[in-house]
């Protein structure tokens, strides 16, 4: 008898692909056959996964559809930044005919489609294929409750005076207009590309099931709210994902780990990284360098290389001259992709200066490090509210993609948050205990993946 086959469709941005591949690995380990839809330039991201599961995971590699606002050759959001989301979502929706063609001629077609929540249009695709679609949320449940409300009622932007309230959502949160998810703020009524994006996000709620990279101890109320709103029990919080990532990163990364090995004092190093795609402007780099230097804390600072000539010209990612020499021995700047999960898990790392991207948040929770948050865009302001106000595991150091932190204030916050008795470090350690319980063998996230597997196998029996 053929194995039950499931189709997986990740959204081509690092922060989206990585956790969905983590989940794919967990499903493959449990014996599912899997086909991943991917475009050629993103294929190398699957190398480790494909070599780990050579007989169970296959790919459906399709050319990236051209789009007037996507530079030729760009296939990953990292190459264009978050403004590329609308063109990417629209361009990828053009893949439907090829997917249908592949599916209808497959000897053992998939019994379900698991796709990223940025690909909500795949709900209609799955309906045409006659299979259920499961939406994969690589962002948090609290964020999802807010963005769902935004898409259902985009008029909130017109009617509000700068601060927008969300009654009925646990905690009755309110946010400044500019702190709402940037993908929503870019919406323009009647613009065809915007309308496709809106319908796509709205379709997520109609999907057969939803999977979240989160866990109850962190987001119980938001998960309960979502379950009640959806009106069915197929809500699977399989997070925190990433703790056992099978791709350990580059060799330069292991140099960082060796550098960390030189220190003894537990929790004394601050790790600084703003996710996979965010670059800092010259003035922001200067303020941050000042803060790191004067706080006298140990640190690892990951600096992403500028991807366009304009960014280079404008001094993006430029580390101030002489800085590296002055901090030598207690801080390093790394200009490469690093194994973040391993770094956060190193015993000498105690703090994480982060943009509050959701994967970074999940990884920090498992590592038990305090977050020094600088939310910039997307879901990050909402994530920061959850972490700072609701959970107390983080402190804000700055807010906004264009803001320049006050250098002296930065020195104060870094020194305070990194001190041994800081409340953020204490609470982060408590959250770690919860997170570790969830991820250890037999813990809640194992049970949730098992539940998801059971649901998929049942679909296989029904359709088989
Ligand atoms: O050198 C690096 C840099 C990053 N990472 C990993 O890359 C991921 C980054 O993800 P995240 O922290 O979520 O940041 P972004 O890449 O910015 O993610 C985008 O996608 C996320 C999920 O939707 C959103 O929460 C963010 O706001 C959005 O910017 C994490 O797993 C990191 O461990 C590395 O392993 N090495």
From TrEMBL:
What residue range is the signal peptide? none
Q: Which UniProt keywords apply?
A: Glycosyltransferase, Transferase
Protein's recorded name: UDP-glycosyltransferase 89A2
- Family per UniProt? Belongs to the UDP-glycosyltransferase family.
Q: Gene3D superfamilies annotated for this entry?
A: Glycogen Phosphorylase B
User: What GO molecular function terms would the record report?
Assistant: UDP-glucosyltransferase activity
Under the heading Pfam families, the entry gives: UDPGT
């Amino acid at each position: 008898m053929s194995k039950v086959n499931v189709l997986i469709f990740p959204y081509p941005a690092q922060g989206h692909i990585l956790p969905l591949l983590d989940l794919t690995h967990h499903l493959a380990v449990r014996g599912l056959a899997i086909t991943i839809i991917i475009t050629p330039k993103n294929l190398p991201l699957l190398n480790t996964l494909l070599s780990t599961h050579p007989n169970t995971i296959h790919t459906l590699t399709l050319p990236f559809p051209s789009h007037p606002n996507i530079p030729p050759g760009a296939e990953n959001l990292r190459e264009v930044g978050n403004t590329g989301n609308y063109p990417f979502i629209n361009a990828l929706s053009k893949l439907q005919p090829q997917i249908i063609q592949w599916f209808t001629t497959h000897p053992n077609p998939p019994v379900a489609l698991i796709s990223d929540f940025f690909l909500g249009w795949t709900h209609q695709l799955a309906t045409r294929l006659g299979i259920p679609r499961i939406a994969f949320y690589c962002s948090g449940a609290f964020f999802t409750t807010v963005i769902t409300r935004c898409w259902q009622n985009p008029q909130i932007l017109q009617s509000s005076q700068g601060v927008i309230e969300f009654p009925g959502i646990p905690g009755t949160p309110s946010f400044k207009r500019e702190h709402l998810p940037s993908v929503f703020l870019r919406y323009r009524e009647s613009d065809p590309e915007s309308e496709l994006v809106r319908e796509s996000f709205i379709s997520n709620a109609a999907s057969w099931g939803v999977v979240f990279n989160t866990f109850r101890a962190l987001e119980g109320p938001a998960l309960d709210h979502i379950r009640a709103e959806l009106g069915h029990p197929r809500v699977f919080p399989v997070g925190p994902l990433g703790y056992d990532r099978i791709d350990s990163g580059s060799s330069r990364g292991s140099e960082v780990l060796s550098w960390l090995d030189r220190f003894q004092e537990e929790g004394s190093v601050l790790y600084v990284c703003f996710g996979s795609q965010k670059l800092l402007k010259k003035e922001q780099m200067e303020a941050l360098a000042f803060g790191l230097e004067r706080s006298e804390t140990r640190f690892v600072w990951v600096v992403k290389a500028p991807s366009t000539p304009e960014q280079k010209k404008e001094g993006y990612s430029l580390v101030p001259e002489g800085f590296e020499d002055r901090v030598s021995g207690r801080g390093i700047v790394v200009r490469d992709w690093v194994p973040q999960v391993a770094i956060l898990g190193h015993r000498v790392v105690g703090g994480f200066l982060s943009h509050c991207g959701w994967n970074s948040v999940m990884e920090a929770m498992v590592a038990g490090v305090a977050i020094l948050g600088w939310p910039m865009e997307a879901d990050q302001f909402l994530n920061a509210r959850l972490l700072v106000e609701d959970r107390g595991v983080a402190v804000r150091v700055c807010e906004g993609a264009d803001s320049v932190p006050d250098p002296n204030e930065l020195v104060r916050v870094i020194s305070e948050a990194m001190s041994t008795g800081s409340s953020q470090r204490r609470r982060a350690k408590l959250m770690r205990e919860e997170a570790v319980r969830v991820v250890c063998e037999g813990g809640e996230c194992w049970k949730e993946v098992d539940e998801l597997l059971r649901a998929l196998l049942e679909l296989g029996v029904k359709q088989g």
